[in-house]
Specification:
single chain, 8 helices, globular
Length: 161
Amino acid sequence: MTFTNIKNNQSDAVRAFQGFNVDDQLALLWYLYKDIGSQISPEPNANSTGSPIAGSWFDQVKQASKEEQLQIQRDIATRQDTEYSRQYGSLDSSTKLFFWYLLAQGMEEGSIIQVPSNYSLPKQAQQFLEQLKPLSLEDKITFAKSVVLPMGSGSPQSTQI
C-alpha cells in the first residue's frame, strides 16, 4: 500500500506504523524527525503551559541512564501502565509533540540514547519510510501527530487531527 495522500489514507498508515515492533516505530520516528526536523520548530500553542512541562519532563528523562531512556520511550509507545507513560498520556497534544521534538533533539546532541549506528530498518519498515519521504511537510507532521498523540497510558486509542 502506498500513502501518497496521508490525509486520505491516514488511518491505514497509522495502523501500518503500529504494526511494526516498538523499536522500529521509535526508529521510524527518528528518521521522520531527521527528515523534517530542520524545517520545524514546534512550540506548544500560546494558551498551553506545554513548553515548560515538556522541557521539565525531558530533563527528567535526560537524567536517566541510556537503557532507562530507551525503556521510557518503549513504554510510552506501547502504552504500558508505567509512571512515565501515564504522565505522557495526560499531556495535551501540543506538549506531547514538543516532548518528542525535544527527545529527537536530545538524540541528535547525544544526551538521549540514539539509534545504534549499525541499526537498519527491516525491509517492510524501510519501504514504509520510503513511502513517507515524498509527502509534503504538512502531511509528514500530520502523520507524526497521528502516531504520537495516542501513545502513553490513558491516551485515547486514536486521535483525529
